[in-house]
Design a protein that fits this description.
Chain lengths: 352, 638
């Protein structure tokens, strides 16, 4: 990839970031009284105007709005990747793979439950065009065998087969999740390696992704400690710490903590200690997400590498979408604005 | 060339004569009313007139009727001495009733039309349904829902293909949605509603009707057509009513507006019993006319006095200049009019502005173009700036004769100089840069000294002898400035020309005396005015303040003088731009030369006028002119 092409992608990412929601937008959204008001604001005053052009704001439903926003984000990222084909193609593929993995996990979680229809209704139809999986076939799958049949011919078949054949009625979801995440990790490594910039992008990108991997691992480890009182070995079987930034010694120290609170305390001895200490703790996923967001923002602002900047932008956009989901759902279910605001992650200063 | 002297006219008369007095004496453009309460002692018992304008409501009524009919009433001239017509109100009310009735009927028809159009829009989506609607609505065991489904959700319906209780009939589609109806057995209706709600189905409530949707649409189209015809007929009737009464309405409107404005003038009066007291300003040169008009009225007397000192700042100002200088009143007004006791600087601005412009722009041909443009703007477009542009163009032509420049050509006027016996053009701008800059400074020094002289005269006129003698723009400041200029000249002179004619001891001592006077200016001014508080309260503070003030004066003399270097700079800019044009034209490409000249004229004229205005407003006015006057605003009713 030429230097100019990378500069173009870099500049485009920054230009898109400039259009993201500000603190004032968040404040005004939190003041909305209904989902329709939120939709009207997003349609009239933000970068989502085009995405919501077709919806009728007074009667729009929560899920419909969320689906439109997700669709917008997906298409925006796809367009970004097309902006610079040689580098962008790899990231585009990674993005689609992330989406496919999410759909698979969603489908498996809701399999054989009362809410199977919920998965069916939540399929992002726009995504079908880009995915290698037949989402409709996946939605119709009633058991593990039909899921395997739906994934036949894809890379996921080989990954899922051992788990679904071993325990078709109650597959080990944490192991499946671990396997799929490891698959994703290998893929993104390959993409970074083939980015053509030599070790620079590869190591920067890997370093960037390590933080995200660590945050996921720490959250799962904490949950297992708190609710299942799992020991270190049980946690290691379900969580892969080797792809993260933490050293073996630091990982052992964390996993050997007798309680979840002790695990949190031992985090201060890790590179993430200060980041966790700066926040008010609500729940572990929230804290982990905030640390990941800060890291993404820092990387986005200071990295000079187009590939890494693109990855960071993807996470920042994802975070904004998550914020909007919190707001929409909070307003829909009549949560007080202050409570909703606590869930939001990012720069919510109204001067922004 | 002065500020027109104003007289304060104080009029007393019977209250019944107030309107005739106003109508005959106060509305012809040479009388500015002033609040009479300020010119009379409250102890005399005069109180302001508190009346409600009886014409306003009638004017509003006409405006309302005109708005309903979509017409703008016209104002025309009215005859003098007009009195209100007592039947106007009755006629107007009757007219209002007729138009309002049409308007109400039209509104009802418009509402019906809107309903039909909405219904048509709804039914349009379901025109594909080939079943009579009454048979669908009368189903006993089947529930039906009309609405629209996003296309993405419609794709998900395939997943319910095996569900026997759901049936969706698409009727039409748009780019993003499919319109149709779904049917479900009564016992499954709730579940069906839940499924379709999850698919973001938006229910549409269509009005009840008989027949198939396409038949309903045809019927609606017919109705819409009839309604539109009826509305059009009403609009025509409304316009006919208005047009048949246009003359009378416009006449009434004009009269009412005139009477209303005349009535508003009564607010300035104060009354006591059946007498009124009224004041206003009249230019002194119009007093004879005013006197003649008042003398023709019984029951009204007046006296005209000069404004007292406490009203000096509030006296309105009307400039009176020779026709030659009158266009520059626009420039002076831009900064601010002189107060009644100040000097009118319009002639000074006229001369200095054209001089400055002429020096900076200096080109005969381009100046001629500006002259023509200015004349066109003044005579054809009635633009005030037009005259100024024309003068500037003329001055530029004179400047061009000095520089020998004709549309950028430096040699085309040589024949003229030879004809008058000169060897060549008087001044080679691009070859004598130093000389140009020295001349610029000299012009600046001259203008600064002139502005100080104006300030001295104005200060004496306003009984501010202290400022006139000891101020930074007064005599002391002028002497100090002149000594500074002499020092600089001596410095430059002595290098080349031997001893300077003026002794350094002389100008040195004058400068010293002047600066001491400047330093003591606050004290000396108070002493001259015979004020008892001439002693400063705090000597240290006084010394510090005076020091910094004198420092600031000296700095301003220097900076304002140096500012005039721009005169020479813009001459060089002009020359440089034309050199660039000729360089681009290479072998005399006439198109490039013409376009280049047009560009230079436009750009340079703009820059030069801005710079000239800046020099006037900042370097010159800051020394001699405040511009705190208030424009004379006489009442003029036609």
């Amino acid at each position: 990839m030429t230097k100019y092409a990378a500069n173009a992608l870099y500049a485009k990412c920054h230009a898109l970031f400039g259009k993201r929601l500000t603190g004032t937008d968040y404040s005004l959204l939190l003041a909305c009284k209904s989902v329709g008001d939120v939709a009207a604001y997003l349609k009239g005053k933000t970068v989502y105007a085009d995405a919501l052009a077709d919806i009728h704001t007074p009667t729009v439903r929560r899920q419909q709005l969320e689906l439109h926003l997700r669709s917008h984000q997906f298409h925006e990222f796809a367009a970004l990747c097309r902006y610079e084909v040689s580098l962008g193609q790899g990231f585009y593929r990674y993005y689609v793979l992330r989406g496919e993995v999410a759909q698979l996990l969603n489908c498996l979680r809701l399999l054989d439950s009362e809410h199977q229809d919920d998965y069916l209704l939540s399929i992002p139809v726009y995504f079908q065009r880009y995915a290698s999986l037949d989402l409709f076939k996946l939605a119709k799958a009633a058991d593990s065998a039909e899921v395997l049949e739906a994934t036949q011919g894809s890379e996921y078949y080989a990954i899922l087969r051992p788990f679904l054949e071993k325990n078709p009625t109650l597959p080990d979801m944490s192991a499946i999740e671990l396997a799929l995440n490891s698959f994703l990790w290998k893929k993104v490594h390959g993409i970074l390696k083939s980015s053509g910039k030599g070790k620079g992008t590869q190591s920067d990108g890997v370093r960037y992704l390590e933080v995200g991997a660590d945050m996921k691992a720490i959250a799962i480890a904490y949950r297992m400690k708190r609710y299942l009182r799992s020991n270190a070995n049980q946690i290691r079987a379900k969580v892969n710490f080797s792809v993260g930034k933490l050293s073996q010694k630091q990982t052992d120290n964390l996993l050997d903590a007798p309680t979840a609170d002790e695990l949190l305390r031992r985090l201060t001895a890790t590179p993430y200690g200060k980041a966790f200490a700066r926040q008010d703790f609500l729940y572990i996923e929230d804290s982990a997400a905030r640390v990941a967001y800060s890291h993404a923002l820092h990387t986005f602002r200071y990295s000079m590498d187009a590939g890494v900047t693109t990855l960071a932008y993807l996470d920042l956009a994802e975070n904004e979408l998550q914020n909007l989901t919190h707001i929409i759902e909070g307003i829909r279910f009549f949560a007080p604005p202050d409570e909703i605001r606590k869930q939001l992650i990012g720069n919510l200063d109204v001067r922004a | 060339m002065a500020v027109s002297q104003m007289k304060l006219v104080r009029t007393v008369g019977f209250l019944s004569k107030l309107n005739p007095f106003l109508a005959s004496c106060c509305i012809d453009g040479f009388f500015e009313p002033d609040n009479a309460a300020r010119h009379i002692s409250p102890s005399l018992g005069f109180t302001p007139l508190a009346e409600e304008n009886p014409y306003i409501s009638l004017i509003h009524k006409i405006d309302e009727l005109a708005e309903i009919s979509g017409i703008t009433p016209e104002r025309k001239r009215v005859r003098a001495g007009l009195v209100p017509d007592p039947q106007s109100e009755t006629w107007l009310l009757d007219m209002g009733t007729r138009i309002a009735a049409i308007h109400d009927e039209r509104r009802d028809l418009a509402e019906q039309l809107s309903l039909c159009e909405n219904a048509m829009e709804q039914y349009n989506h379901f025109v594909g349904l080939d079943t009579p609607l009454e048979s669908i609505f009368s189903c006993k065991y089947i529930k039906v829902r009309f609405g629209r489904l996003p296309k993405e959700s419609a794709q998900k319906l395939t997943l319910y293909a095996n569900n026997p209780y759901l049936l969706f009939i698409p009727c039409s589609e748009t780019e993003t949605d499919e319109y149709g109806a779904y049917f479900a057995p009564r016992h499954y209706a709730d579940e069906a509603d839940r499924i379709f709600a999850s698919l973001f189905f938006e229910r549409l409530w269509i009005p009840g009707a008989v027949g198939r949707p396409r038949d309903v649409l045809a019927h609606l189209e017919q109705n819409i057509s009839i309604l539109k015809e009826q509305i059009s007929a009403l609009d025509t009737r409304s316009r006919e009513i208005w047009s048949s009464e246009t003359e009378r309405l416009n006449s009434m409107y004009s009269q009412l507006c005139y009477l209303s404005e005349l009535f508003e003038l009564r607010r300035y009066a104060v009354v006591h019993g059946d007498s009124f007291f009224y004041t206003g300003w009249v230019p002194a040169d119009r007093m004879r006319r005013f006197t003649r008009l008042i003398d023709n009225m019984d029951g009204v007397t007046f006296e005209a006095v000069d404004p007292t000192p406490e009203f000096a700042e509030e006296v309105p100002v009307r400039l009176k200049n020779l026709r030659l200088f009158r266009p520059f009143e626009y420039l002076v007004a831009m900064f601010g009019l002189p107060s009644s006791t100040d000097m009118d600087v319009t002639p000074f601005v006229a001369i200095t502005y054209t001089l400055i412009f002429g020096i900076m722009f200096g080109d005969v041909g381009q100046g001629f173009v500006l002259l023509l443009a200015g004349l066109f703007a003044y005579f054809k477009m009635r633009s005030k700036m037009g005259a100024i542009i024309a003068y500037s163009g003329g001055a530029a032509m004179l400047g061009g004769l000095v520089y020998g420049s004709f549309f950028g050509y430096e040699d085309k006027l040589d024949f003229l100089y030879r004809a008058v016996g000169l060897p060549g053009k008087p001044f080679h701008a691009m070859e004598s840069v130093n000389g140009l800059l020295i001349v610029s400074i000299a012009v600046g020094i001259a203008l600064m000294l002139c502005s100080m002289v104006i300030n001295i005269i104005t200060s004496f006129k306003n009984h501010r002898a202290g400022d006139a003698l000891f101020g930074p723009n007064g005599f002391a400041g002028m002497v100090f400035y002149a000594c500074g200029v002499t020092f600089a000249t001596d410095f430059l002179w002595s290098d080349k020309n031997g001893p300077f004619p003026v002794s350094s001891a002389l100008y040195g001592s004058c400068a010293l005396v002047a600066i001491v006077l400047l330093f003591l200016h606050p004290i000396l001014s108070k002493l001259i005015a015979r004020r008892k508080d001439w002693k400063p309260k705090n000597i240290g503070e006084f010394l510090m303040e005076s020091f910094f003030e004198v420092f600031e004066y000296v700095l301003s003399y220097f900076s304002n003088t140096v500012s005039f270097l721009r005169l020479g700079a813009f001459v060089l800019v002009h020359g440089g731009m034309m050199m660039a044009v000729f360089a681009m034209a290479k072998n005399g490409n006439i198109v490039v030369i013409v376009l280049g000249n047009i560009f230079v004229i436009a750009l340079e004229a703009l820059f030069t006028s801005i710079q000239a205005m800046r020099l006037e407003f900042y370097e010159i006015f800051s020394r001699c002119y405040k511009g705190e006057g208030r424009a004379f605003a006489p009442v003029r009713l036609k």
